[in-house]
Amino acid sequence: MPTHIDLRKEVRTRSQLLIGNGIFRLLAATGDPMARVLGVRPPADPYPLYEKIRARGELSRGRFGFYITPSHGLASAMLRDQRLGTVSTADVNGVDWNVYPGDAEYLVHPVEDSLLAMNPPEHTRLRRLVSPWFTPRALRDRTERIERIVADFLDGVADRGEFELVRDFAIRVPVRVICDLFGIPDSEYQRFSRWGSILAGTLDGIRTVRERRAARDALVGMTGFFDDLIAHRRKQPGDGDVITGLLEARPDGEPLDRRDLVALAGLLLGAGFETTVNLITNGVAALLENPEAKRLLIEQPDRAGDVVEEVLRYDPPVQFTARMTHEPVDYAGVRIPARHLVVLIIGGTNRDPAVFAEPARFDVDRPNNREHLAFSSGIHYCLGAGLARIEGEIALRELFRRFPRLYRAAPPVRRTGRNIRGLQRMPMRTGTARNVLVS
Ligand code: HEM
After folding, report:
1. What does the pLDDT look like over 106-135, one tens digit per residue?
2. Cα of 380 to ligand 1 centre, how many Å?
3. What are phi and psi of 319, to 5 degrees?
4. Domain coordinates of the chain in residue numbers?
5. pTM of this structure
6. Atom of ligand 1 nearest to the CA of 317
7. Where does 7-438 sit in CATH, by number?
């Protein structure tokens, strides 16, 4: 890799970061709820801030020309409105990853270069190619495998009596599922999880030069990894894995180019476990705090689907998404000009009292809990939603079935990000007779 930095780009990015951060800090210090929600240090409990923003109206204008909404009705309409399109990190705060000569040709970003940042018709073409791995039938085939992964893990824990929720359980399930999808050993998971958490952090926007550097290093690692895997599968095709399938695909009579392939693989990797791990941790946290819901899950394990939907509504792993207007649009009596950013607060839409009665209550019996926007809506609706639901259902159902007296051995530590919400660490005890006595 080249080592000489492009100074002009570096200076431009540094000054953008400096100015952007300074302004956000200043506004956050004045108590501006939008700056506090999107600003430098995220609050441990963001939901009261979303309510402050809601109190200002369905759609508010931020101080720098962006718009923000916690309204379920507005956000779902905007997500389905083709006059609004996707947004890149560069759109949000001017970060340019490619500071070394050669970066622009070599590096592939799993969000900015992938489906998630594409608009039709490219989006439609690529999404169609990966869909076969996520059909209900493909998912049925995966269910048994996921059940085995979870059972193996729980067997291991039963003897120890204690474990760390994230490292030992929540992350293992989605990582193994994704490694299966790629046909690779899950011993790779530590590298994956490092890249995944660094790149997931960039969804909050890049705040410092150090963050930008760490993200670029993760991009170099991930791009190189998938380049190698693709080269290997070209020589030695696998059996039913997603890379082999994509290499064989001929969307317009032509094979997919390297950039699309690497970006898709990176997106599946990142989207596949950086989110699902938090569905599991947020689920465990919500069930421990709501003993009635926990009892219901233990007594009626076939209600695991309702539990997962309510976790996704009540405490969604992805808290925001954003769109850019392609042309002027009118919403809630406000004209949003072209090329303006709209932040959609998914965590706020899921607690919109116009749609969900007593929204701050965790209620598994809620009749409309599937109406949440945790998986977004419209053309970018999460491709892995079905898979994530199955993983969440099996993980939560089996964990509490095997260890109905599961409890926290120490207070949880939250992840520090704004967009991806979940736990970083939560030591657990299984509540079996031996460790109840020693605790
Ligand atoms: C609880 C777990 C998950 C959550 C909360 C979640 C959330 C989301 C959200 C909110 C979006 C759309 C963002 C937007 O509209 O701007 C999305 C897109 C996507 N997700 Fe997920 N996701 C989860 C699990 C997964 C899994 C397991 C996979 C695959 C293995 C996956 C693959 C994708 C892909 C490929 C897209 C892009 C779809 C497109 O642009 O057409 N996700 N996800």
Report:
1. 788 887 888 888 989 989 999 999 999 899
2. 8
3. -90, -25
4. 7-438
5. 0.91
6. 5
7. 1.10.630.10
